[in-house]
Amino acid sequence: xxxxxxxxxxxxxxxxxxxxxxxxxxxxxxxxxxxxxxxKITVVVPVxxxxxxxxxxxxxDWSQAQKMNYPAEREYDTVLVLHPRISNPKPGKIFRKNYExxxxxxxARYFTDKKLITTPNKTIFFAQWMPSAYKVTKLxxxxxxxxxxxxxxxxxxVWPFASDTNKQQFVEGWRSTDLRLSVAxxxxxxxxxxxxxxxxxxxxYRGTDTSIFxxxxxxxxxxxxxxxxxxxxxxxxxxxxxxxxxxxxxxxxEALKDIAAQGIAFKLVCIYSGENNINIIEEAxxxxxxxxxxxxxxxxxxxxxxxxxxxxxxxxxxxxxxIANAVVEAMACGLPVVTTNICGHPELVAxxxxxxxxxxxNIEALTDKIKILLKDxxxxxxxxxxxxxxxxxxxxxxxxxxxxLLDLFERLCSD
Length: 415
What we know:
By secondary structure, the chain is α/β, with parallel strands linked by helices. It is built from 16 helices and 16 strands. It has two domains: 5-207 and 398-414, Rossmann fold; 218-395, 3-Layer(aba) Sandwich (Rossmann fold).
């Protein structure tokens, strides 16, 4: 369909600020793929307003908003990003409008004043993450445009159960959107259980760019190790994920403590960013594990593939996910993965020929699977090769999978 304009409302988006450089990178890759496929893409990331300095120091929210210093608009990797302001009066409790009302009113005025919607019948508001998608759907109804909502993980696994209000908003948001989408069948089925109805949905797996995330040969792997400072023949285990308990870091450290005690050599490469609730180094120190920890911290998203290609095993023992994008990318790079059999992971890792699944928080199983891979180089190579082939030829790449999404958008606008 010519002239399709998709306004994308991600929950967060990459920004040059500590901990934010890779935030929402998987959403960005999806939006860029839709743009490359011919859709007009505008990303909308509303931010709360603040008074000018020195008044901004009077409230922590205002002060933080000023530190972030979002421009009115910017371009990120060829994609236009708008940052409309949401009024943010303090103290909030004495003002009539709550955040939801301010969000809808301010954005409706913003879209109207700027005349952003030129062809309503060819416009879609595409929101990811239900807490914001719920509000975006209400905004779209006011502006008379179609909506699509994509579930991604904790917006199903956690948010609806935090309060009765959240559940009510979840039910309303999932029912009222025009197109229901999910990154995993599991999440959509769970959403329907919460709603209590078998509502139609489409699962769109996030593919990966297999021209970047791909296996490398032994010589290139060794060159990457030297480039990244891993001057060792010792097997490298890689873990990438926010440094929070739910990503399974503590379970991994416990398992590796047991493996190290058995005299099996390895190094753990730790990559993480965002809002962390555990300190990897402190946790490693309490387990006398510093000697085998390589603490990297935040890495630009453009460099992640190199770390995967330099590693030997990828491990992410999460407690909850949609489908972990890092696991998909690691498999595409030819790494044998060890991850938990939770949420959408069984949809990705269908058998032990392409990856190893373990029960959540089962230290014994985690220890056993990692140890098997560390001791058997041929098994690592076999599972890794199968995984890379599966991602490339079955799971799908970013463009192929988002062609399916664009087809759904075009069908929605033609109804």
